[in-house]
Amino acid sequence: MARLVILGGGESGVGTAILGLKKGYGIFVSDKGEIKEKYKKVLEHYGIDWEEKAHTEAKILNADVVMKSPGIPDTVPLVLLLKEKGIPVISEIEFAARFTDARIIGITGSNGKTTTTMLTNHILKEGGLSVGMAGNIGDSFAKMVAEKEYGNYVLEISSFQLDGIVDFKPHVAIITNITPDHLDRYDYKFENYVASKFRITENQESDDYLIYDADDEVIVNWLAKHPVKSILMPFSIEKEMGQGAFLKNGEIVLKINNETIKMKESTLALEGKHNVKNTMASSLAAKLVGIRKQTIRECVANFQGAEHRLEKVLKIQHVQYINDSKATNVNATYFALDSMSAPTVWIVGGVDKGNNYKELMPLVREKVKAIICLGSDNSKIVDAFGNVVDLLVETYAMEEAVKVAYKIAERGDTVLLSPACASFDLFKNYEDRGNQFKEAIKNL
């Protein structure tokens, strides 16, 4: 019996354990931290051997294959030791993909991948396809493959998951954009991070597709130097495309194999230029797997969007409150501010991943009337914008931030939570931050 060792007892680890068990592997799950109670119950239900708060090398180094959770860097001594011994260390998407013949749409990128994944899944489902949505979102891919066979999977895939692939090959790959993020995992070299994202195409063949943002210089320059085998499907809001998607006279135009689909930008459910791009990517993917024009048009008009991503919470006294807690980097906040059409009271701050706020300066000058800092250390934000806006207030709790916003905002304004930072100084995670924001608004 082949031995599968799983490092990390979270969603992807436990999903892989269930699939491995069904496929006849002997399984051992090892987590250096604590395993959550709900996952322990699942492991015990299946009679799977596990340990927490330690890695017992003797029980790990006899593996035939190791699945490593995306949170564990490739540089930890145990992983280096496994590789030295020639034991393959792979990611969950690589393991799970070996046990399904389903068609896969794989979506990666620094920002927009959750929205694009959810919208693509929505269109395929409404179009009558058998489809499962997994990866970085919801259930693990491996657990889905173990429990239900779908004809199609829409997978949100992080660069960490792509680092652990060997043969994984999506029929349709989407790269939404590439901006500096997680550079601590890539020796602080941006090109290593870019190469990691492009691994999504490395096993694609000439009848597969790569959908990408043709306005993103990083992607375009990389493709010029590293040609891929797949058929290119670019999208752009700046220029016309012979094949792919573009914006013309207020319409999104899709051109695929001599077929043209047009959709008015004004009918899209999601607001903002970045969401025009996410919509283009999802629509191209849906068309490539055979969804009808009419279904695509209807779906992009009625889609609800992702929670904590430019989520309209409430309108109070003609002031719109928007929760964009998922904006944990400057690039995501740039998109949010760019899509604001009303004077904006901006709530920003948290744990800074080496942010450069300069690129937000033109948008802040144009759109932001007041800034409310929300973090345990707001000094960088104060230094960056103190002289740019008329009013800047420092707060240290969500309830306080929302009360201040309520006082400042006038009829017709927007209050936007778009922190540009991680959340773990004052909150458990970005969901907790977004939920506290929504709760504080309801208590006004």
TrEMBL record:
Keyword Ribosomal protein: no
One Pfam family linked to the record: MurD_N
Principal cellular location given in the protein's record: cytoplasm
Keyword Repressor: no
Domain Mur ligase central: 107-285
Catalytic activity, as annotated: UDP-N-acetyl-alpha-D-muramoyl-L-alanine + D-glutamate + ATP = UDP-N-acetyl-alpha-D-muramoyl-L-alanyl-D-glutamate + ADP + phosphate + H(+)
GO cellular component: cytoplasm
GO molecular function, one term: ATP binding
TM ranges: none
The protein's annotated pathway: Cell wall biogenesis; peptidoglycan biosynthesis
Any one Gene Ontology BP term: cell division
Alphabetically ordered keywords of this record: ATP-binding, Cell cycle, Cell division, Cell shape, Cell wall biogenesis/degradation, Cytoplasm, Ligase, Nucleotide-binding, Peptidoglycan synthesis
Residues that hold ATP according to the record: G109, S110, N111, G112, K113, T114, T115
All residue ranges annotated as the Mur ligase C-terminal domain in the record: 308-421
Compartmental location: Cytoplasm
E.C. code: 6.3.2.9
Family: Belongs to the MurCDEF family.
Function: Cell wall formation. Catalyzes the addition of glutamate to the nucleotide precursor UDP-N-acetylmuramoyl-L-alanine (UMA).
Protein's recorded name: UDP-N-acetylmuramoylalanine--D-glutamate ligase
